[in-house]
Amino acid sequence: MREKIRELTRDTAIYGISTIVGRFLGFLLVPFYTHFISPGAMGIYGNIYAYIAFLNIIYIYGMDAAFMKYSSLAAAEEKDRTFSSAYLAVVMTTLLMTALLFLLRSPFNALMEVPAGYGHLVYYVIFILLFDTLALIPFASLRLERRAKKFAFLKLGNILLNLGLNLLFFIQLRMGIESIFAANLIASAATFLVLLPEILPRLRQRIQEGLLRRMLRFGLPYLPASLASIMIQVIDRPIVLRLTDLATLGLYQTGHKLGIFMMLVVSMFQYAWQPFFLNNAREKNAREIFAKVMTLFVVAASLLWAVVSLFIDIAAAFEFAAGRSLIARQFLPGLVVVPIILLAYLFNGIYVNLWAGIYIEEKTKYFPLVTGAGALVNVAANLLLVPRLGIIGAALAVLASYVVMAVGLHHVAQKFYPVAYEYGKLARIMALVLLTGAAYYFRLFQGGVDLWQRFALLGAFLAALFAMRIVSRDDLKKLRALLPVRK
Fold first, then answer.
1. pTM for this entry
2. What's the pLDDT tens digit per position in 424-476?
3. Of 20, 148, 350, 418, which has the highest C-beta tally within 10 A?
4. How far apart are CA 37 and CA 181, in angstroms?
5. What is d(CA 240, CA 234) in angstroms, rounded to the nearest whole number?
6. How many domains does the chain have?
7. 115 is in which domain, residue-wise?
8. Residue 321: phi, psi to the nearest 5?
């Protein structure tokens, strides 16, 4: 038992590190892009990739999850037939959708509101979707076979190749925004080619129709929930474009991307949290542990929020060479949304914390309802707030969606698996975050926030954590005492 848990933890760490490093390397491209493309071009990039994210979900339609379920249950001699049935079905539907998108490329460009002169980017989109989709089930197979190192090697190789090609195309070939799409396409195609030795030996000549029907019945219900989830992440881009312009969207895209600092923390926590709560669910004091973990997570995340929110624009404006700041100056106005986006991801972390009761009591059927509610709030809030507040309105819509998801999941989780969270402390932390944020934005819109004022706000924030009895020196000791010790 302990050896299996160690294996799970090791694999989780490998998957987690590859994902987190990949996201961080992707983040490094954002300041790089700001020095080579205009805010309008950044808007085109952000908007097109929002559509790619939607179409990624439609192209796979839950078949990766269905494959993992039925392959895990299949006998050894049936595993290749399961892989082949799922993969051939995805190949056929992907080729069909590729052909359809190719034929409808002009209406698709119009839907994405791609300006004249950039219509050719749709060809990159079509083939990026093709190669990315054809790699999904082979990657799922690697995960199922616990080949975590190869999975991580291929993922990181894809990202490093993409990063290197971006540098080549932007700096040497001067390809402008096309560099982003060309680098992505080549990296996706290369990854697919490297996976071919995994794919070809497992393919059979025909699909097992009965098995495919079962997989479709299992996988297709994932589609609405997955679309709702991705909608929360990217629907704001096309709405901002429709209600403002490409340059405004480019500023928003830049500011939104800098929320990665909180997203990385939530991702790292998520990889550790799920095996932790599943492994400790049977402990007598499990609920007490979960409550304390929630408090400590929110405290740590709020500290990160305060530091990044108060100093991100100063760091971004730092000149590493004459006239060269980390993020090009024309993009700096977009950083006004960073504190709000960071807070949105903090609430996403609270949402992840609340998974415990839902998984333990096997009530995962409520996830689509909660996610769907968050998506609806996101769309409605964007339509309401963007015309009045611009990109700040879009950021507030993201925050509203994650708040609704956290509150909704809390309601469901407490119904089936009550946990006595430290609501007093959590409320005081949120009040402190809101007060600090209000003071920061008040000074910002009154003419700017001096460096000493930023340090004063941070000092007040830290002092209040102790003065309001949110944090004490004994908290970590208490958590350690709560953890069961096996001798």
1. 0.87
2. 999 999 999 999 999 999 999 988 889 999 999 999 999 998 888 777 666 55
3. 350
4. 13
5. 11
6. 2
7. 62-219
8. -155, 165
